[in-house]
Amino acid sequence: MASIFQAVSMAMAAAALSGGFAVPASAAAFRSEYTVSYLGLTIARSHFESTFDGNRFKVSGSMSSAGIAQIFDDTKGTVTARGRFADAGPLPDDFVTNYTSGDKKKKTEIGFAGGNVSKVVNIPPLKKRGRDWVKVADADLRAVTDPLSGTLIRADSTEKVCGRTVKMFDGEMRANLVLDYVSKGPVSLPGYSGEAVTCRARFVPVAGYKKGHRSIEYLKKCSKIAISFAPIGTTGVYAPVRATVGTQIGTITIEARKFEAVN
């Protein structure tokens, strides 16, 4: 089951969220809940809480394995991202993720300055890699975002959500998600009823991975990835409400079960 969570992480480049934090009076706060399923069975659950105050944003939360997946892999994690929106997209300030999988624990901290990575801390440190490893160069860490901030898209309308490349770095791997328009249609779930836009996502590994790795090669060449975005209130920001990711072991579905304003 660990490979399922790895595939979701690489393809979506995102973790899931929950937990509470103080909300400024001028800010808009939102809460969402997601499930991750494989072959129709729920394997993980997550909860988001986010605030938007002008151009500033903060997202914080957690993800845990669920259902049959808990038998094979008890995984829990938390993640927080903070930053602001600019014309070119989200500019994160910092990104922190902690997760525990069985007896293994890992923490990653990424600091940003002007859209560029300024600090990376991995605990425990990353293992020494062989000659078949594609190293991350300094140029790869410019004009990038973290996996969580990268899922937030500010656009004037649904027509402008797709047609862009999201450049992400998770503390080890640099990858791009190339989004192309597929369709628009209604979506209804607790807290939201309205239009969503679906983008086709092409996964492009850039650096920080092993050449010829089967999962990476499949995601790059064969995987069919689709992500549907819906507006978060009147913030002008769009976030995923559904995604399907084709992997070597089958299709993984990530779906919002709740998408609502808190205040």
Summarize the structure.
By secondary structure, this protein is mainly beta.
Oligomer: single chain
Strand content: over 45%
Give me the secondary-structure category: mainly beta
Relative helix content:
under 10%
Give the tags.
disordered N terminus; 16 strands; 3 helices; 14-stranded antiparallel sheet; 263 residues
Question: Can you walk through the features of this model?
Answer:
This protein is mainly beta and 263 residues long. It is 9% helix and 57% strand. The protein is built from 3 helices and 16 strands. The protein has helices at residues 2-12, 69-72, 214-221; strands at 28-38, 41-53, 56-65, 75-86, 89-101, 104-113, 116-123, 133-134, 153-154, 164-169, 174-189, 192-207, 209-210, 225-231, 237-247, 250-261. Strands 1, 2, 3, 4, 5, 6, 7, 9, 10, 11, 12, 14, 15 and 16 form a 14-stranded antiparallel β-sheet that branches. A two-stranded antiparallel sheet has the order 8-13. The protein is globular and about 50 Å long. It starts with a helix and ends with a strand. The model is unreliable at 1-25 (pLDDT under 50).
What order do the helices and strands come in, and which of them pair?
Blueprint: H1 2-12, E1 28-38, E2 41-53, E3 56-65, H2 69-72, E4 75-86, E5 89-101, E6 104-113, E7 116-123, E8 133-134, E9 153-154, E10 164-169, E11 174-189, E12 192-207, E13 209-210, H3 214-221, E14 225-231, E15 237-247, E16 250-261
Antiparallel strand pairs: 1-2, 1-16, 2-3, 3-4, 4-5, 5-6, 6-7, 8-13, 9-15, 10-11, 11-12, 12-14, 14-15, 15-16
